[in-house]
Write a structure and sequence with these properties.
mainly beta; 6-stranded antiparallel beta sheet; two-stranded antiparallel ribbon; 1 helix; 9% helix; binds 2-acetamido-2-deoxy-beta-D-glucopyranose
């Protein structure tokens, strides 16, 4: 009996440590409120990750500053570097980006429509140097009043991918 238990215990532990996965909605699109078309699903280990939705509205991608929106849903293997909650940034000259994200870990939990932060034009007393430049254009900054709950000055650099 004793030897039976000694053998059984590691087997039970191995079973309970087995990966748990969830199935998430997967799509990306520019529709205001939902992904068009719903492209399918993906499956991810829930140990560190799960399902995500990212919705944004910005005027960065177009030369004439018109608004574009996008929604993406899918799987993320590790939530820890993932930006949580709503983020807005005002970059001067009508350039802005407003993003909301959500993350969850049950099957199809990322199917809901995700709201994007609304514009808040109330000045909050802070100001930051602002500029936005694509490619090699110089980023000539000018001080711009901060609005709403934008309480930090930030700098960022990266790749802008359209479509
Ligand atoms: C961001 O998304 C959450 C849902 O995850 C929602 O409750 C919240 O109202 C949204 N925030 C804004 C500012 O739209
Ligand atoms: C807009 O921003 C101001 C200044 O931070 C704040 O007092 C106000 O509550 C915000 N309005 C909304 C609708 O969030």
């Amino acid at each position: 009996m004793v030897s039976f238990l000694l053998c059984l215990l590691p087997a039970l532990l191995a079973t309970s440590a087995q990966a748990q996965t969830v199935t998430c909605k997967k799509c990306s699109g520019s529709a205001d409120s939902s992904c068009q078309p719903p492209a399918g699903t993906c499956t991810v280990d829930t140990a560190k990750g799960g399902c995500v939705t990212v919705a944004d509205e910005n005027t960065l991608a177009t030369a004439d500053g018109t608004k574009s929106t996008s929604v993406s849903k899918g799987c993320v293997g590790d939530f820890s570097p993932f930006i949580k909650g709503p983020v807005t940034a005002t970059l001067g000259n009508g350039k802005y980006i407003r993003v909301n994200t959500s993350q969850c870990s049950t099957d199809d939990c990322n199917s809901a429509v995700l709201a994007v932060p609304k514009e808040n034009t109330t000045k909050n007393g802070l100001q930051c140097p602002t500029c936005f430049a694509l490619n090699t254009n110089p980023c000539d900054s000018q001080d711009t009043p901060c609005t709403g709950n934008e309480n930090y000055c930030i700098s960022f650099a990266g790749y802008l991918v359209t479509g």
